[in-house]
UniProtKB/TrEMBL annotation:
Keywords: Membrane, Protein transport, Transport. It holds the Pfam family Alpha_adaptinC2. Residues 726-823 form the Clathrin adaptor alpha/beta/gamma-adaptin appendage Ig-like subdomain domain. This is AP complex subunit beta. Coiled coil: none annotated. One of its GO terms (molecular function) is clathrin binding. It is a peripheral membrane protein. GO terms for cellular component: endomembrane system; membrane coat. Its main location: membrane. The keyword Transport applies. It comes from the Eukaryota. One of its GO terms (biological process) is intracellular protein transport.
Length: 826
């Protein structure tokens, strides 16, 4: 008869009957009753009322019954902590049982019962079990120490369990060593309890070969956090762990690759040993691609990182990344990415032949990516560009809508990479103008028409066809159309005079998009004030696009390589992006000495310098040093009707359009009416008919301006404070371990200040604040440090940080994007 009978009962007074059966003198009846209790507990019934009766059943020699009782105890000990103490004597007794299985079971259960009152009784049995003669008991006790540390770290230190764990690293049994490493690693995640040293490394390497696969993963992860003393030790570690590359388990292989990738960086770049080692890395990664699709995907995501870091490792293995007909779509997409990264002059013919085949597949997303990949090949390998362009033209001739649209997008990039080389194909592109319905494709086609307007006879007609539905277009298309019409006007003024007036009017007067309006006003001002300057700005030589536009940022890549074989390497995001540090404190791999708060924290180039000098960069902030990124701080406050009075007061009666409009001198009482214009041969003069004077006298300039210009002093505020944008939520407490940040930027007495309010929603005080601005469009940097006094729980504090514009300038997108780092200690 099966165990299903325990889950089916229709008796009344079930708890009462179970109580009687649990107190029965017959062992079999008692065992059956415990099984019924566990069955009821499994399906969600509350059987906590039977706690004393079940505990009485612990006094038995039957291992199966003891396991069932322990399972019940683990489930209900939290809700019945006082009654749970009744079981302590039995636990202590079982820890001295002759049967090692019962000893291990007792210490494991005591570790799983997360009740403070029981932990103090756990110490002596746990200490005995860590020195037990049986390895099964010792390895169980090692894991129990980590569980006890999670509940009470101070108790673990005071009772000397860290030293006992350290002793277990020298154990003769490899599984005991592996569990000790796992426990120490888990404890180090919360706070550093032990440092990996050369003596410990030798013990771990000795146990590595005899461990189970998961024990090997634990040991390899521990080795990843060790920095060898010299090149000789580095080579020794590499030689001893490289046989793990041939392991059947993918996790062991990837963990080994992670350690080797880190150690390679510590050796001289011209070392022959590195050459030998990189040859060993390729075969195991290729082998992973013959596994199940899910493992293939994980392997491919990790290979993507490795190829970006060291493309030489897999440069001869292009064929294994060719797509198979039965590959799932997610595997196909990853293989495509890696193919492009490995593409070079000696294999480009093979790659292009493959990509051309892929472009005729039935999966739309895969075809789109294949067409884009052809364009990326043309940009990356110059000698293949002509063949790539020819292939794209052949694909355009298929007239498949989505293929044509993707081809137009990548051809635009090819034009930017190789100007004045392939313009003969423009006519073929123009034939497909009517089929383009996606914003990116339409914007790309408009860019091509505007850029080569002097070579396209009917460029004005083509652009006019887009202008007809200007307000129905996507913002991306509208912006590109505005720029293209201005280019056409600058190149062929006589043809596009009416068209440019119409587009500028649509962009500045009929549009509610601030980006479009601002660009329209900039062009308007340039064209009416200084046509020569307009030509220099709009028709300037474009910078060539880079070969690889989708590479990960170097610092992020370094981070992710240190996490090969984990979720971070699959997501291509640092662990802090998807793990709540409050719930799961993050491990700090490759630690470097933490400098005192000051210039080292505020120097954005320090990490780069550290890596160049050979010191390992900090990959993840420790729990007590949380770095909160305040992204996309929009300094340009939207002007609303409620703010108009504020602007008017500071401007002595004049009104302001705010933002870039004022920056360009468009502010004033109102836009001047069109003056009567004498006939002129200069087509730029007619732009004044739109209400834009060709020059604005100094007397007409407004007293102050809004938006960014107001903050940065272009309008001559003097001592006036002007409009102050209300504070906005920059960082929510749920995303920064309880610290909430609200702030705004103001200008007072000719100085820019950042005003922030920090609220402490955590359970402990926060202090030692430090602030860093990343490079930004305005060169904005803080010139004074924050007040260091602590903020107690549930209290707020206001800070005013005076800023200066003497810092390094780096244009950001959008222009007003500012990244701020706020560092503090808990």
């Amino acid at each position: 008869m099966t165990d299903s009978k325990y889950f089916t009962t229709t008796k009344k007074g079930e708890i009462f009957e179970l109580k009687n059966e649990l107190n029965s003198d017959k062992k079999e009846k008692k065992k059956e009753a415990v099984k019924k209790v566990i069955a009821s507990m499994t399906v969600g019934k509350d059987v906590s009322a039977l706690f004393p009766d079940v505990v009485n059943c612990m006094q038995t020699d039957n291992v199966e019954l003891k396991k069932l009782v322990y399972l019940y105890l683990m489930n209900y000990a939290k809700s019945q902590p006082d009654l749970a103490i009744m079981a302590v004597n039995t636990f202590v007794k079982d820890c001295e049982d002759p049967n090692p299985l019962i000893r291990a079971l007792a210490v494991r259960t005591m570790g799983c019962i997360r009740v403070e009152k029981i932990t103090e009784y756990l110490c002596d049995p746990l200490r005995r079990c860590m020195k037990d003669e049986d390895p099964y008991v010792r390895k169980t006790a090692a894991v129990c120490v980590a569980k006890l540390h999670d509940m009470n770290p101070t108790l673990v230190k005071d009772q000397g369990f860290v030293e006992l764990l350290n002793d277990l690293l020298s154990d003769a049994n490899p599984m005991v060593v592996a569990n000790a490493v796992a426990a120490l690693t888990e404890m180090n995640d919360q706070q550093t309890v032990i440092e990996v040293n050369s003596q410990m490394v030798n013990k771990l390497l000795t146990a590595l070969n005899e461990c189970t696969e998961w024990g090997q993963v634990f040991i390899l992860d521990a080795l990843a956090g060790y920095t060898p003393r010299d090149e000789r030790e580095t080579q020794n570690i590499c030689e001893r762990i490289s046989p793990r590359l041939a392991h059947a388990n993918a996790a062991v292989v990837l963990s080994t690759v992670k350690v080797l990738m880190k150690l390679i960086d510590m050796m001289p770049a011209d070392s022959d040993f590195i050459t030998q080692l990189t040859k060993k890395l390729a075969p195991p990664m290729v082998t992973l691609l013959s596994a199940e699709p899910e493992i293939q995907y994980v392997a491919l995501r990790n290979i993507n990182l490795i190829v970006q870091k060291r493309p030489d490792i897999l440069k001869q293995e292009m064929k294994v990344f060719f797509v198979k007909y039965n590959d799932p779509i997610y595997v196909k997409m990853e293989k495509l990415d890696i193919m492009i990264r490995l593409a070079q002059q000696n294999n480009i013919s093979q790659v292009l032949s493959e990509l051309k085949e892929y472009a005729t597949e039935v999966d739309v997303d895969f075809v789109r990516k294949s067409v884009r990949a052809i364009g990326r090949c043309a940009i990356k390998v110059e000698t293949s560009s002509e063949r790539c362009v020819q292939t794209l033209l052949e694909l355009i001739q298929t007239k498949v809508n989505y293929v044509v649209q993707e081809a137009v997008v990548v051809i635009k990039d090819i034009f930017r990479k190789y100007p004045n080389r392939y313009e003969s194909i423009i006519s073929a592109l123009c034939e497909n103008l009517d089929t383009l319905d996606e914003p990116e494709a339409r914007a790309s086609m408009i860019w091509i028409i505007g850029e080569y307007a002097e070579r396209i006879d009917n460029a004005d007609e083509l652009l006019e066809s887009f202008v007809e539905g200007f307000h129905d277009e996507n913002t991306q298309v509208q912006l590109q159309l505005l720029t293209a019409v201005v280019k056409l006007f600058l190149k062929r003024p006589g043809v596009a005079q009416a068209l440019v007036q119409r587009v500028l009017s649509l962009a500045t007067q009929d549009s509610d998009n601030p980006d479009l309006r601002d660009r329209g006003f900039i062009y308007w001002r340039l064209l009416s004030a200084d046509p020569a300057a307009a030509k220099n700005v709009v028709l300037t030589e474009k910078p060539l696009i880079s070969e690889e536009t989708d590479l990960l940022e170097p610092s992020l890549l370094e981070q992710l390589v240190c996490h090969i074989g984990t979720l971070a390497s699959v997501y291509h995001k640092p662990p802090s992006a998807f793990i709540d540090p409050a719930k799961a404190p993050l491990r700090q791999i490759n630690p470097i000495p933490t400098a005192k708060f000051g210039s080292s924290l505020l120097d954005t180039s320090s990490a780069t310098n550290a890596s160049r000098n050979g010191s390992a960069p900090t990959v993840i902030p420790s729990q007590d040093q949380v770095i909160a990124d305040l992204l996309s701080l929009d300094l340009n406050a939207p002007a609303t009707s409620a703010n108009t009075g504020g602007y008017g007061a500071s401007m002595s009666g004049t009104t302001s359009m705010g933002g870039l409009d004022d920056l360009l001198g468009l502010g004033g009482d109102s836009m001047p009416a069109a003056p009567a214009m004498a006939s002129s041969n200069n087509p730029f003069d007619s732009l004044a008919g739109l209400g834009m004077p060709s020059a604005v006298p100094a007397a007409q300039q407004p007293a102050s301006i809004g938006g960014l210009a107001e903050i940065f002093g272009s309008g001559g505020f003097g001592a006036s404070s002007g409009y102050t944008h209300p504070k906005e939520m920059w960082l929510d407490a749920s995303k920064a371990m309880g610290m909430q940040v609200e702030g705004t930027f103001v200008r007072r007495n000719g100085r820019i200040s950042m005003e922030i309010t920090i609220t402490n929603r955590a359970m402990q005080a926060i202090s030692e604040f430090a602030l860093q601005f990343n490079k930004n469009s305005f060169g904005l940097i803080p010139v004074e440090q924050m007040d260091q006094s602590p903020i107690l729980p549930n209290q707020s504090k206001n800070f005013t940080i005076v800023c200066d514009t003497s810092g390094p300038v780096q244009v950001t997108t959008p222009l007003t994007n500012l990244q701020v780092r706020l560092i503090y200690k808990m």
